[in-house]
């Protein structure tokens, strides 16, 4: 769990670094989602966001810096409980500021921090642990750890149940259609794509792995072996996905969750081989870490008392674990019910009046990755700008002359996976209101550079292709999603 804590903190830092490159575009009033549009079009009244206090990039930069500082504290295990709480609050706030770029990995990262509030993941390999005696053993069982294990199982079981289209269950063509999506196709996916029968086999393997492998997490016998097998298979599973499909940070977040499931024998094996390197790194950090003040959380005080039974325990310390476990059981039941809501019949589903808690604390989650079926519609975008002398320039490709030919790599046109997700969302008819803000933003950014020729009009064009069975394609066809005129200059 300490290893998972450090991995989660590192991923938060990477996520912040990637998001910071689009600070103005995604989080300010000058970007694609100004605050008044967020509240009008994409806001849930039960949610909160500190990032909505201002539309200025300077305020957003301060919040980003604060989130990074908290993540560093979490990485070091300094005031772990408070660093976890602060990181979770700011992550929820950041995700709520722009839901149009959210993806499944964001849900998992948020839930790892949420359950981390109750996990003893600062008990070892942490600044806080230096003032505590070494644990008698490294196995840990309780409601919090059970909730974490169930959460990981829900990710895979629920996505399998949601994949109820024939492409997954009978035809075995889901991976073929996934690799037909040029917007997410990675180089290794190009190598796999010509092998139709292999993709059919991998489709069935993926479906039944997600559906049945989580059973290993609850085996009462050979628990360590089953747990290690679960971790190793899914490490390979997510590594394969990351090499074939552009999924952003999702595979790294999944790796972090799997680290928390490594059994004690596996950790002992790793520590024996990595111990010298870890000790060398710790020696370099020791002087700086000694400058951090010692601080005890209430949970650590409670743990210290439990480890020293000769010290008299007050009644309220004895009541804390029972109260915490009761709350955790209720939370776990709520999360399980939320996940089953899209699977069970509406009669047993969660009614809207009960969803306020999930929206407020962001325990809401949906694991519909490529579910119920894989998109068949594919294509690429052209930002078709018209100059005063009649030329057509493609802003998506640095202002080169417009070409309607298919690019060699469509995935490479996206700056990062946040922009890819954004472009996926504004393609949907229900989100057509997004397009005008995007169009005007790109037009303004273009004119902010005095070296660029002035434009009179900009069209957001989608070159649509439809994937058909056995490597057949319908299209491409040119679709103008929206257009905007440049203001007089």
UniProtKB/TrEMBL annotation:
Return the protein name. HTTM-like domain-containing protein
**Ranges for domain HTTM-like:** 1-266
Q: Principal place where this protein is found?
A: membrane
Gene Ontology CC annotations of this record: endomembrane system
Presence of the UniProt keyword Transmembrane helix in the record? yes
Q: Which UniProt keywords apply?
A: Membrane, Transmembrane, Transmembrane helix
UniProt keyword annotation of Membrane present: yes
Superkingdom: Bacteria
Q: How does it sit in the membrane?
A: Multi-pass membrane protein
PANTHER family under this entry? Answer: HTTM DOMAIN-CONTAINING PROTEIN (PTHR39535:SF2), SPORULATION-DELAYING PROTEIN SDPB (PTHR39535)
Where does this protein reside within or beyond the cell? Endomembrane system
């Amino acid at each position: 769990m300490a290893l998972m804590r450090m991995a989660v903190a590192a991923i938060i830092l990477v996520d912040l670094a990637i998001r910071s490159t689009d600070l103005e575009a995604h989080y300010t009033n000058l970007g694609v989602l100004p605050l008044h549009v967020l509240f009008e079009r994409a806001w849930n009244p039960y949610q909160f966001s500190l990032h909505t206090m201002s539309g200025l990039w300077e305020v957003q930069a301060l919040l980003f810096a604060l989130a990074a500082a908290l993540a560093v504290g979490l990485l070091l295990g300094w005031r772990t409980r408070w660093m976890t709480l602060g990181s979770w609050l700011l992550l929820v706030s950041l995700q709520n500021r722009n839901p149009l770029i959210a993806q499944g990995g964001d849900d998992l990262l948020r839930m790892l921090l949420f359950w981390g509030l109750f996990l003893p993941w600062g008990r070892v390999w942490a600044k806080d642990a230096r003032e505590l005696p070494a644990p008698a053993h490294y196995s840990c069982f309780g409601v919090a750890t059970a909730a974490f294990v169930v959460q990981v199982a829900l990710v895979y079981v629920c996505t399998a149940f949601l994949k109820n289209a024939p492409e997954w269950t009978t035809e075995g063509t889901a991976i073929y259609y996934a690799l037909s999506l040029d917007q997410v196709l990675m180089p290794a996916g190009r190598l796999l794509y010509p092998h139709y029968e292999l993709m059919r086999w991998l489709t069935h393997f993926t479906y039944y792995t997600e559906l049945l492998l989580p059973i290993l997490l609850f085996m009462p016998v050979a628990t360590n072996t089953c747990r290690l097998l679960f971790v190793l298979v899914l490490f390979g599973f997510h590594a394969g996905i990351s090499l074939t499909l552009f999924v952003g940070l999702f595979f790294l977040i999944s790796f972090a969750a799997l680290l928390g499931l490594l059994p004690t024998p596996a950790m002992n094996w790793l520590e024996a081989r990595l111990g010298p390197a870890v000790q060398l790194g710790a020696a370099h950090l020791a002087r700086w870490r000694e400058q951090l003040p010692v601080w005890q959380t209430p949970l650590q005080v409670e743990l210290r008392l439990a480890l020293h039974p000769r010290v008299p325990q007050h009644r309220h310390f004895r009541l804390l674990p029972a109260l915490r476990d009761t709350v955790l059981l209720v939370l776990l039941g709520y999360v399980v019910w939320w996940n089953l809501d899209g699977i069970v019949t509406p009669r047993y589903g969660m009614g809207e009046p009960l969803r306020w808690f999930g929206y407020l604390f962001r325990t809401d989650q949906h694991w519909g990755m490529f579910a119920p079926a894989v998109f068949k519609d594919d294509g690429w975008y052209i930002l078709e700008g018209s100059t005063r002398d009649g030329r057509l320039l493609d802003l998506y490709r640095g202002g080169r002359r417009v070409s309607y030919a298919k690019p060699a790599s469509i995935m490479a046109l996206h700056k990062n996976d946040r922009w890819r997700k954004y472009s996926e969302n504004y393609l949907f008819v229900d989100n057509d209101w997004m397009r005008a803000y995007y169009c005007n933003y790109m037009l303004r950014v273009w004119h902010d550079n005095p070296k660029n020729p002035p434009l009179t009009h900009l069209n957001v064009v989608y070159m649509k292709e439809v994937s058909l069975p056995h490597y057949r394609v319908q299209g491409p066809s040119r679709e103008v999603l929206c257009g905007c005129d440049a203001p007089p200059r």
